[in-house]
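Kindly inspect this one:
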Amino acid sequence: MRLCADVGGSFVDIAAFDDAGAIGWRRKVPTPVDDWTAFVALFADALAAVACDRVSIATAGLVDPLSGIVTSANIPCIDGRRLAAELGAVLAVPVRVVNDADAFVLAEAARGVAAGHDRVFGIILGTGVGGGLVEHGRIVSGAGGIGGEWGHGQVVHDSRTAPGANPVFACGCGLVGCLDTIGSARGLERLHRFLHGIDADSIAITRGAQAGDPLAAATVDYWCELVGGPLAMLLHAMSATIVPVGGGLANATALIAALDARVRANLLTPATTPIVVPGRLGQDAGLIGAFVAGA
């Protein structure tokens, strides 16, 4: 038996998997974001409830593949720790830790919409923009654990001839014009405000566009233009054959279909079937990805 957890900034989803990969015992508890002792106790209590011989964790934040150090702004109690080594020493079982976006892609490649594809670039479109790359069933982690992270780095520049004409926003990473600022759910809302001077949440915008509202439709079209080009360029560079989408915007199927159409229109090699598609595993993806990563 293996104990697997999907650790987010609000909740920890934790479950026991049998050797065949089926979920048995499971619980969901608030994340003790500031309390390392409580964080350790959460796993110790789970191991006391169900006998498991190892632990696999998918967590929000970067996981350095060399040092094992986790960088997590949303969960301060694990930030800067060699989480696998430190937690394993206390629990007296082997521990594997991976980034949650990587876990999502790994799960979709193993059991989800990307099953059968050799190279999978999965993206997260939610509060922020994230991603991960899986090749032949293995995570491509990259230096510092940032493999597949495409949300940061300037992609939108202010116009010298017409300042203010382009939607250049400051990013939480310290840069400006990052894809994260326009491609996320908050980014979609920023674009709506930029174009129309109207505040609306992402759900209202995507639903409005689908219902034929011209302002919402214009925002979605602009969003697809700004996100679709960089994504097509990455697919050329990575030669990935499918892009499963997770995060809140993945629930807006018409939006993802529009993004897929824009991406395929930008590809040098025409694709006749969808490439950018919503993930299939939903809320189980993080847990399944942790299980597959620990195999």
